[in-house]
Specification:
- The protein is mainly α.
- It has helices spanning 2-21, 23-34, 38-65, 71-85, 92-121, 125-140, 146-152, 162-176, 193-225, 229-233, 235-257, 259-279, 285-297, 300-310, 315-325, 329-343, 346-353, 355-363.
- Helix 1 runs parallel beside helix 4, helix 14 runs antiparallel to helix 15 and helix 16 crosses helix 17 (346-353).
């Protein structure tokens, strides 16, 4: 029964994170149909990511005070509604507000959903890895909206609310089944804020490394191997595929070796793999791309459970930070990485990214497994 409930939560998670990945898909169509410039487009990205990440811990605080299982389907619909409204009006402020609405919906979903997942899975590392996997898959399949938009234009955006409706439809029965009754916030245990701050620093380092890699990888591979834009873009499939494998491995490795040990070794491997991406001169670099993705995603679900265990009286807050505020660091640092690439080279920036998981590996030595 728990496996079925976890599968429902994972599917619902994917239907929400789909809307996080869909903004970059919408950008070319907004530019083509409405003539927006780079500055206007950057406003959409900022509204979708930074606003969501900043607001998410606020919802975490709220879910620590009150049980709000209804927030899960409501936030799902809100996420889809924002994207659906983008094509309704050609007004830039209206489109900006619509994307911001999606960001708020995504922010409202994660703290309560992570609390629910913890209840349903009993805090199982494997169960939480499946919950995390749903979100990663949802983000990865967002480009599937491209063909619809290419055929019908932005006028088709109202149809994009359908995944949100489907996700809410399969989640509501789960909340009615009795699981929601066990979600009342419980303040039991002692919060370890120093450990949580260290964990947050590790997550920030991981976020910058992954966002930097995913942002520049296709361009770098095209230059390095002299591939066409289409061929080099296939590198992202290797990256996303490795992320799926890493997310599933994380829970199983943690069950066998412990979360801290698993994190430490995965970040050490990630540092070596990122160096390989930057330095290997031939097609073998695809192996290092896959290894980098696996190693960077192995700790993904472990961050969530560790954060919740370090702050046992503030599970919602911990979920909001580990899934939101800290993760936004990658997006915030992306312009700085782009400036560094222009001043030096893509190879230099990718090689420099290897330092970040190495620092993360060192910081894990300051962590201990929560009781």
């Amino acid at each position: 029964m728990k496996r079925f409930q976890t599968a429902l939560l994972s599917t619902g998670h994917g239907s929400v994170d789909l809307y996080q990945g869909i903004v970059p898909v919408l950008v070319p169509f907004l530019v083509a149909e409405r003539g927006y410039g780079y500055l206007a487009v950057s406003g959409f990205v900022l509204a979708a990511t930074l606003l969501s990440s900043v607001v998410q811990p606020v919802f975490g605080l709220l879910t620590d005070r009150w049980s709000m299982p209804w927030l899960i389907p409501a936030s799902m619909i809100t996420s889809g509604l924002g994207v659906a409204l983008i094509g309704v009006s050609s007004s830039y402020p209206f489109a900006l507000a619509a994307i911001a609405l999606t960001g708020i919906g995504v922010a409202a979903y994660h703290p309560q959903a992570a609390r629910t997942a913890r209840s349903v899975t009993g805090g199982s590392h494997v169960g939480m890895s499946w919950f995390s996997l749903g979100g990663n898959l949802g983000f990865a399949v967002a480009p599937a909206a491209g063909p619809l938009l290419a055929y019908s234009g932005l006028a088709a955006t109202p149809l994009l609310i359908l995944p949100a409706v489907a996700g809410a439809a399969i989640t509501v029965p789960l909340l009615r089944s009795g699981s929601a009754a066990r979600l009342r916030p419980q303040r039991v245990g002692v919060d370890d804020w120093p450990a949580f701050r260290t964990l947050t620093a590790i997550i920030v380092l991981r976020s910058i490394a992954y966002v930097g890699l995913s942002t520049f990888l296709s361009l770098y591979v095209g230059q390095r191997l002299q591939l066409s834009a289409g061929a080099s873009a296939t590198t992202l499939f290797v990256l996303f595929g490795g992320g799926v494998i890493g997310t599933l491995l994380g829970g199983r490795l943690a069950t066998r070796f412990g979360r801290i040990t698993t994190m430490r070794w995965s970040y050490a491997v990630a540092a070596l793999a990122l160096a390989g991406v930057a330095l290997v001169p031939n097609a073998a670099l695809f192996v290092f791309v896959a290894l980098s993705a696996i190693a960077l995603y192995v700790p993904f679900s472990l961050h969530i459970t560790l954060g919740q265990d370090y702050l046992p009286t503030r599970v919602g807050t911990a979920s909001g930070v580990t899934l939101g505020l800290a993760v936004s660091a990658g997006g915030v640092m992306a312009p700085a990485l782009a400036a560094a690439a222009e001043a030096t080279s893509l190879q230099f920036v990718l090689a420099a990214l290897a330092i970040l998981p190495a620092l993360g590996c060192l910081l894990t030595r300051r962590l201990t497994e929560p009781a």
